[in-house]
Write a structure and sequence with these properties.
The complex is a heterodimer of chains A (about 525) and B (about 45). With about 525 residues, chain A is mainly α. Helices cover about 75% and strands about 0% of the residues of chain A. With about 45 residues, chain B is mostly helical. Chain B is rod-shaped and about 55 Å long. Classes of the chains: A mainly alpha (about 525), B mainly alpha (about 45).
């Protein structure tokens, strides 16, 4: 057994132990589902980022960069980061204010409709099960690569790990283990970074080396990236692909249950806003560094299998101990997302889909745990059946939920016209529109569903149209009106001047970091690439 | 890279790849003004 395997196993054991210890503090469903709504900024940031960056972020997406789509990734990641800040300001803080246990429950209460709650629950479960599949595949492949064990055994080990602490400790454990894992992959990447850059000729000479590297993928440094990687035949198509998936991820981080849902656990709304803004800064900077590391590997060896490139780099280019921490970080990223997804599936089925009057909290907790176990097994079986690449499945899942929920989520907070019928039809047609067009396009039956006719946009268009049509001729009930009005009254505890000032300081930092990143990219990449300096 | 057509594409992508966060930050600052006004009214009482 090598040092990498030992460190990964030790880190996994640590997560399980912490999860089990934290689980002992669970007293009721509020503790189990939303960590008692008392989490500070740091833990919310940790959980936001750990849930967002999974093995897909470390392997699937860095593989795409390595294969020639660095520019596309960089832009998509900034949209992703911006969505965290936008989402919490215009949706997440209101979700926090609603004080529900799950997001589908929020929709159900906002529109006073059990049908909407159930539909949102079903969409959550379908989408997140796909995502869980992508993540378990990633952790299994990584473990197999490192240990040489059979892939099925590796799926089983990763399954046993994330199911055990999620099963026992719910959100209380997930948010703490998420933050631990976030620290591990941040630290691991930071300490391995100099070795990877050094091997590729140094960060200072990276762009020049890549420009002169005949083995570099086609279009790597051009504004449109590698056309083949986007499925386009021209630069316009590739840029559109980038913007479209940027908008998708902007929406995902703004409204998805595994991102916006984290805000329900925040101590206050100001804490939620700070966490969203800090998360945006950390995501933008971290992803930029990670993808620069991925393309620096092209200068070392341009013939690696893209999704394994970063793992190969950590394993072969950094000293054994440093590489082990980085690899433990990738494993942690996968496990943390899997734990979050599994918990959301369990909560949604128990709280939103099942029409069952639980005797007490104990029975509800037991049901949630059994469902998590069942879905953990399902994800394991699907992973063994090898149902698709890591990035492909993860992006499909994220697109599905963004396309289906986006319109209803924002209009639930900002529209006085949308009614329960409009919201239900909007969500349903968004879902059907996305799934049908994706299916037709994927099988090559219809070829027009790309760019602004991408299934994501078809879902959004249908959602908007049916929200309007469905709301016509129906009046909002008094309960809906009261709920909406109450949601727009800011609680006094959120208005302490010092707290608002502190939140604004975080926002100013985000503004400065964003500008600094653009200046860096122009001076570091755009200018030398175009021969201006 | 000789003979390559001049393009602003890389600059535009650089702006999208960073300043988008700043744009959302500015929007967030505007959104916080509502809280500031409510805060001023609450603590003036």
């Amino acid at each position: 057994m090598n040092v990498q395997t030992i460190i990964i196993i030790l880190s996994v054991v640590a997560y399980v132990v912490v999860g089990l210890v934290v689980g002992r503090r669970i007293k009721n469903t509020e503790d189990y589902y939303v960590s008692g709504r008392r989490m500070p900024t740091f833990l919310i940031v940790g959980s936001l980022i750990a849930s967002l960056i999974s093995t897909n972020g470390f392997m699937g997406e860095t593989g795409w960069s390595y294969g020639g789509n660095f520019v596309n990734e960089m832009v998509i990641n900034t949209f992703t980061a911006a969505g965290l800040a936008f989402g919490v300001i215009f949706f997440g803080r209101y979700l926090r204010r609603a004080e529900t246990l799950t997001m589908p429950e929020y929709f159900g209460r906002r529109f006073n409709s059990r049908s909407i709650q159930r539909l949102a629950g079903i969409i959550t479960v379908l989408s997140i099960t796909c995502y869980l599949l992508a993540v378990i595949t990633g952790t299994g492949v990584l473990l197999s690569e490192l240990t040489g064990l059979d892939l099925i055994w590796c799926y089983l080990i990763s399954f046993a790990c994330f199911v055990s602490f999620t099963f026992y400790s719910g959100s209380n454990g997930v948010i703490i283990t998420d933050t631990m894992m976030f620290l591990v992959f941040f630290a691991g990447t930071a300490i391995a970074m100099p070795y990877l850059f050094e091997s590729g000729g140094g960060l200072g000479g990276l762009i020049e080396n890549l420009m002169n590297n005949p083995d570099a993928p086609e279009g790597l440094l051009a504004y449109h990236g590698n056309l083949a990687g986007t499925g386009s035949t021209d630069a316009f198509g590739a840029v559109m692909y980038t913007v479209i998936y940027g908008l998708v991820w902007f929406t995902v981080t703004g409204i998805s249950p595994w991102q916006a849902g984290r805000h329900m656990m925040a101590k206050t709304e100001q804490v939620a806003i700070r966490a969203g803004v800090l998360g945006a800064i950390a995501t933008a900077v971290f992803f930029l560094i990670l993808h620069l590391m991925a393309i620096s590997l092209i200068n070392v060896d341009a013939g690696l299998q893209p999704e394994r490139a970063l793992v190969w780099g950590f394993y072969n280019l950094a000293p054994a101990f440093v590489g082990s921490i980085a690899l433990a970080g990738i494993m942690a990223a996968g496990l943390s997302s899997a734990a979050t997804f599994l918990s959301i599936i369990g909560f949604s089925i128990t709280n939103d889909i099942l029409d069952f009057k639980f005797k007490d909290d104990k029975q509800k907790l037991f049901t949630s745990r059994m469902i998590m176990l069942g879905f953990g097994v399902l994800a394991f079986v699907l992973a063994v059946a090898n149902l698709g690449g890591i990035r492909v499945v993860a992006w499909l899942a994220s697109t599905l939920i963004a396309s289906t929920w986006c319109v209803v989520a924002f209009s639930s907070v900002w529209s006085k016209k949308i009614t329960s019928r409009g919201a239900f039809l909007s969500m349903l047609t968004g879902f059907v529109g996305f799934v049908v067009t994706k299916f037709l396009y994927g099988l090559g039956i219809v070829s027009i569903f790309y760019n602004f006719l991408d299934p994501f946009f078809i879902g959004i268009y249908l959602s908007i149209v049916f929200a309007i049509i469905g709301s016509r001729g129906q009046q909002r009930t008094q309960l809906e009106i009261d709920y909406f009005d109450k949601m727009h009254i800011t609680p006094e505890i959120e208005l302490i001047p010092e707290e608002i000032k502190k939140t604004k300081l975080y926002i100013w930092i985000a503004i400065i970091v964003g500008v600094a990143m653009s200046v860096f990219l122009i001076l570091y990449w755009a200018a030398p690439y175009n021969g201006w300096i | 890279m000789k003979g390559r057509r001049f393009t602003m594409g890389e600059v535009i992508m650089s702006l999208l790849g960073g300043a988008l966060v700043s744009v959302v930050g500015v929007i967030a600052l505007f959104a916080m003004r509502k809280d500031e006004r409510a805060s001023a009214n609450t603590y003036k009482k």
